[in-house]
Hints:
Blueprint: H1 2-24, E1 70-73, E2 79-83, E3 88-93, H2 99-113, H3 117-132, H4 140-152, H5 156-170, H6 184-191, H7 193-197, E4 202-207, E5 218-224, H8 232-235, E6 237-243, E7 249-254, E8 262-265, E9 270-275, H9 292-302, H10 306-316, E10 324-329, E11 334-339, H11 342-346, E12 353-355, E13 372-375, H12 392-406, H13 413-419, E14 438-445, E15 450-455, E16 468-472
Amino acid sequence: MEAGKRAKKMKKYMIVLALTMMTAAMLTLGGCNDGKSPVTNPDGMKKVASRSVEREVAYTDESEREEVLARASSKDGLCVIETHSTYYDVVLDYEKGTPAQVGAAYAEAILKARPDYEEILEPYLYENIQSAFGGRNIPYESLEKRILTLTSAIPEEYREEVESFAKALSKGEEGYAENGKLSFVEVLTMQLIPDALRPTACSALSLWGSKTVTGDRISLRNLEWNIGSTNAMTEVHAVTHMKKGDGSMTMISMLGLLDVITAINDDGVMLGILDVGSKHSLPFTYEGKKCYTFEARYALEHFRTAREAGEFLVGESGDFTWCNNLFVTDAKDAFCCENATAEVAAAGQAKSVLRGADSELLEGLSWDCPDSFCVVNSFATKGNQDGFSGEPANSNRWMKYTTYVKEKEQFSVADVKGIMAHEIVDQYEVINVHNHGTVHTVIVDYRTGKIHVSFTKGSCAEDVPRYIDVGSYH
Length: 474
């Protein structure tokens, strides 16, 4: 009876939302106020690859390569950083050094490539801390205990690397103090923002088979994060290549971060983190917990398929600090690890499950697009925690992805790029898929192995994003 009421309520909500979306498509709000955004045309917008951007989108399956502007290396050569105009290309060589040596080498090279690294990152770190604690007086002693406890739970080789990195970067600085320098515990805190403080929203899409021109899979992951009041995150984009034999991978993240936000291993297993949380808040628990971002890294280093990695991470999920979605794909499959913490599961609020394209969805929720798979910041499997009803951010983006996927019978890489060029980005009155919080968009073409990335520069993403070829996962 109760389920039927909820289904009717959701159906009614979806209808209202659909009408809202039709209205939203007619909005002509400005861009990022940078003088470079395309101008909207209220008298008749072009329906090319865009709904509300007047500029015609002309993508191809290829992306440009950026030239190397500068190069920095640690003395031992275990870390090499090449500076590009938009991002830093980092190579960490674990085949020639221990994790601790690589961590120290990374810190050394960063301070050469970006001498103002601490000045950029420290204010951003404190903005995240203030946000996590609601702007109240911060219990720094308790926060330090939280960070050190979670750090001790990181798999040993990663912990050695992270602690060595923090020690080399901090140069003896200790404790929390906003002094323009990064202390040992502040560097550790930066590594654990998703696990100890939480990130923001994200989304992901995978297309394959009859839905792509080649029949091969194309996966997209859009990262939304707190960019920072001084745009700190968009100053330090990084593509980090971890050379580790069969455990090698490429991470799309930020300079100095060693956990997984978006990454793909040499076998083509791609993983992206998405926050979920508990709809009915429970006290935060970190004692006896694991850092899911480092467990994700472990999965990419030790498993060769998306299914194996997904099953492992779902199995570990009870020990995570937050409920989360993990988008996991390879050339064959696409999954979402709907990860519920042990406390949330015990309270009957959610369950951990590996959702696939054939999984039954929540009552009232539909995805009638064959050979495609979508993830937003809510569980979607039937019987799981419902983060769609009464949550416009999730419902709206889910429906917009549905609309975009139905626009074409088959998608090329160029068409998938165009999905992120539908709407004016800086619309605070409208819930967008590609919005002012977007930090990067990653597209993996499983036919060629190429990784295409759009990096946000400045205060918000461009309405028509520019994609860069950052190499391949092979």
